[in-house]
């Protein structure tokens, strides 16, 4: 309880500018955790959908049957790539180049899906890179105020400078608290997006080869 009261007192007694810095860092931390939760749910859902679709696709069923299921549902990820490729393949006249045309259509959808995975990831990178500097600014300002206040007293004591230094260090701690999870999450989600993009790209190659065999029959 005393720690909580002293912390509240520390924030309440901080200078207006340092309080503003703390508010910015608190808002950045809340926004960061919201983005982390959203992307965690997104990548979990996308991986589950990829596993489910690959199970259907490699089950030996007819492509037309899979296409009807995808068309009647909400296609995302590999399902959306499959639908684009199958639709393009169905419209091609006999004798037209299959592989390049179909893969080009699928890669357009791949880029769109990857953009969706990376949507707002840049905010995590921004929070992770900027927050320590915002906290450092609050630290410098708090320490500067502490030493400036010494000019108005006859005798400098630790009790006079301690509150200002404490609020300054607290601003630094808040900057790190906002930055570290954001950086870790950004790196983690970026790696997952790259792996999913590679997975989609491999599917395009495999599906294109399969359609090429169908065209040759």
Brief account:
InterPro entries: ExbB/TolQ_transport, MotA_ExbB_proton_chnl, Tol-Pal_TolQ. The chain has about 220 residues and is mainly α. Helices cover about 85% and strands about 0% of the residues.
Shape: rod-shaped
Radius of gyration computed on alpha carbons = 28 Å
H/E element string?
HHHHHHH
User: Helical region count?
Assistant: 7
Distance between the ends? 78 Å
* Average pLDDT level: 85
Helix content: over 70%
Subcellular location: Cell inner membrane; Cell membrane
Main location: membrane
InterPro entries: ExbB/TolQ_transport, MotA_ExbB_proton_chnl, Tol-Pal_TolQ
Subunit structure: The Tol-Pal system is composed of five core proteins: the inner membrane proteins TolA, TolQ and TolR, the periplasmic protein TolB and the outer membrane protein Pal. They form a network linking the inner and outer membranes and the peptidoglycan layer.
Question: How would you describe this protein?
Answer:
With 217 residues, the chain is mainly α. 86% of the residues lie in helices and 0% in strands. Residues 1-5 have low confidence and may be disordered. The protein has helices at residues 2-13, 16-57, 63-72, 78-91, 98-117, 121-149, 158-216. The chain has one domain (19-216). The protein has 7 helices and no strands.
Task: List the main descriptive attributes of the protein structure presented here.
Tol-Pal_TolQ; mainly alpha; disordered N terminus; 7 helices; 217 residues; single chain
């Amino acid at each position: 309880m005393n720690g909580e009261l002293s912390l509240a007192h520390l924030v309440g007694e901080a200078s207006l500018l340092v309080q503003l810095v703390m508010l910015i860092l608190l808002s950045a931390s809340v926004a960061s955790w919201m983005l982390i939760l959203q992307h965690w749910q997104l990548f979990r859902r996308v991986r589950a959908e990829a596993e489910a679709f690959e199970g259907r696709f490699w089950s030996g069923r007819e492509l037309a049957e899979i296409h009807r299921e995808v068309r009647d549902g909400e296609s995302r990820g590999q399902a959306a790539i499959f639908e684009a490729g199958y639709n393009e393949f169905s419209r091609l006249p006999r004798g037209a180049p299959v592989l390049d045309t179909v893969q080009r259509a699928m890669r357009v959808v791949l880029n769109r899906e990857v953009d969706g995975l990376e949507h707002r990831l840049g905010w995590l990178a921004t929070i992770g890179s900027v927050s320590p500097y915002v906290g450092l600014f609050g630290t410098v300002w708090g320490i500067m105020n502490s030493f400036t206040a010494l000019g108005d007293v006859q005798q400098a004591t630790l009790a006079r400078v301690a509150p200002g230094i404490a609020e300054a260090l607290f601003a630094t701690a808040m900057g790190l608290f906002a930055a570290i999870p954001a950086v870790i999450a950004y790196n983690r989600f970026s790696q997952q997006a790259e792996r999913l993009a590679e997975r989609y790209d491999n599917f395009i190659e495999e599906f294109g080869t399969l359609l090429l065999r169908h065209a040759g029959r």
